[in-house]
Amino acid sequence: MSESKIASVLKKPMTEVFTEADNFKYKLFYPVCGFLLEIALKPIVNTEFGTMVWNAGLGLCQYFEEQKMDFSHKKVIELGAGTGILSILTVLLGGDVTITDNPQLLQQIELNVSANIPSSMKSRVQIRALSWGLDQSQFPSDYDYILGGDIVYNRSSLPLILKTLQHLCNESTVIYFASTMSISRELITSSYRTLFQYFDSDLVCRYENVDVNLYRMTKKKSQTQG
Ligand SMILES: C[S@@+](CC[C@H](N)C(=O)[O-])C[C@H]1O[C@@H](n2cnc3c(N)ncnc32)[C@H](O)[C@@H]1O
Question: 122: domain range?
């Protein structure tokens, strides 16, 4: 287990309030990896919390900065991307990234991708609907990385996430999931305990000030044979 750290990316971002015809109301600016990421939020209902930037997604952004991650030539998919901030950073760090969420969130992700990803990099981005447990078979199983920030928080979603991971993962896929434990400590802890039955895991980082744990997981060998 790694040492506990303070998450500085999670400092209150600079906020700009605006209103446009399409109802995007807020823009937040996050400095990370030498980029100033501009994230617009669309307050809409029934989106399972995708219209704010969650600390776990930001924790993963900070971890990628600290680890000087280079995603060049790596194929990445993010589940439950929300605003898309983590995927956007991963594209800027060289990755070939598929950004996914429920269909209602895709317009918000498209707007944020347009604002942050230069046209020369757009060929490395796909934005697609992936509802856990339902759509995964439309995606390949050859990803180098699977990312998820604050998506493990709901008892009924866990089997759907597990089913999705089991389809998307191969024996060399690395999963980075982060969770704000205080959302529901017992539930999240027991959900990870279930995931760890299927995936070898390390707690690679913990941001104490925001109670965010970062896990690195790979498919257990017994899951990949036969
Ligand atoms: C708590 S938010 C986290 C958003 C983002 N990862 C972040 O760190 O800011 C959870 C995300 O999971 C998505 N989500 C919830 N249930 C889902 C499902 N069944 N299939 C796909 N995405 C789902 C939500 O739309 C939302 O964007």
Answer: 4-224
CATH of residue 73: 3.40.50.150
Total of domains in the chain: 1
Atom number of ligand 1 nearest to Cα 56: 8
Check if 131 has its Cβ closer than 6 Å to any atom of ligand 1.
yes
Q: Which residues of the chain have pLDDT under 70?
A: 1-25, 43-51, 222-226
Q: What is the 3-state secondary structure (H, E, C) of the chain?
A: CCCEECCCCCCCCEEEECCCCCCCCEEEEEEECCEEEEEEECCCCCCCCCCCCCHHHHHHHHHHHHCCCCCCCCEEEECCCCCCHHHHHHHHCCCEEEEEECHHHHHHHHHHHHHHCCHHHHHHEEEEECCCCCCHHHCCCCCCEEEEECCCCCCCCHHHHHHHHHHHCCCCCEEEEEEEHHHCHHHHHHHHHHHCCCEEEEEEEEEHHHCEEEEEEEECHHHHCC
Report the pLDDT value the prediction gives residue 26, as an integer from 0 to 100: 73
Distance 161 CA to ligand 1 centre (A): 11
- Which residue among 45, 79, 101, 179 has the greatest number of ligand 1 atoms within 8 angstroms of its CB, and so is best to mutate? 101
> What's the CA-to-centroid distance between 201 and ligand 1, angstroms?
22
